[in-house]
Amino acid sequence: MTPARSSSAAGVYGLGSDIIRNLRKDFRVEFRSRFALNIAVSFAAIVTIAMSLTAGGAPFPAAVQSILLWTVIFFSAMNGLSHIFVREEDQATALFLRVSVTTDSIFISKSIFNQVFMMILLIVITPLFVFFLQVNVIHIAFFILSVAAGGIAIAAATTILAAMVAKAGGKGSLFTIISFPVLLPILWVSINSTTGALRQTAPSYDNPVFLLAFSGFISVISFLLFRSVWLED
Question: CA quadruple 12, 13, 14, 18: dihedral positive or negative?
């Protein structure tokens, strides 16, 4: 193996080790307290049950059900997606991260954590919403794909925003305010996609494909911008 290849392999191995170490730390800290997850799930459960009681068993149209579903998902996610960076600043561990691991490994590990966090929320929230709001899902596979694609897009778009809010000393309310304009196109497409899963007509896969493509695009842009955000004094 040439010295260049050896150096490249060592760099990839070091990056992978840092990512795994950061993920272990983040999951250990988060699930030890389960602060963000408990708040997000509690909010979703309370709002969903309140909607069900208010409706009194009357079924909503498919479009309204999709709007309500993504409203619950959005505000539940906002309670937790910023926590991964805000916690580092609150606990004064951000400086240690900056000097001990590379910025690339920090961004990748935080992005993976937010994706896993979002998937856990969707797994809990979606069946709860379908049950209490009596949602009749016609195209089950497409519905799952639409919800998953929307959740991936939300997590991908908000990771860099969470870092910006944490650096600015902001909390969840500021994160929600600056995230909404960015997430509005994602929510609109996600609503249209899930609405198609609740109707008899054959759904179009254009919306999930757009959401996944947008997730990849915004992740690359965020990766390139993260260094300037994270290292800014």
Answer: positive
Our count of domains for the chain comes to: 1
Predicted TM-score (pTM) of this structure: 0.88
Distance, in Å, from the CA atom of 88 to the CA atom of 95, rounded to the nearest integer, reads 9
pLDDT for 7 equals 47
Query: Whole-angstrom Cα distance, residue 147 to residue 194?
Result: 7
Task: Supply the mean pLDDT for the chain.
Answer: 84
Place of tokens 């490994």: 105
Who's near 63: CB < 8 A, 6+ residues apart?
191, 195
Judge whether residue 1 has pLDDT over 60: no
Using CA atoms in the order 165, 170, 172, 174, what is the torsion angle rounded to 10 degrees? -80
Indicate the angle between helix axes 3-33 and 35-55, nearest 10 degrees: 60
| Domain range for 27 | 3-230
pLDDT computed for residue 152 by the predictor:
95
Separation between Cα atoms, residue 232 and residue 226, nearest integer Å? 10
Question: What is the number of alpha carbons within 13 Å of residue 175 lying toward its C-beta?
Answer: 30
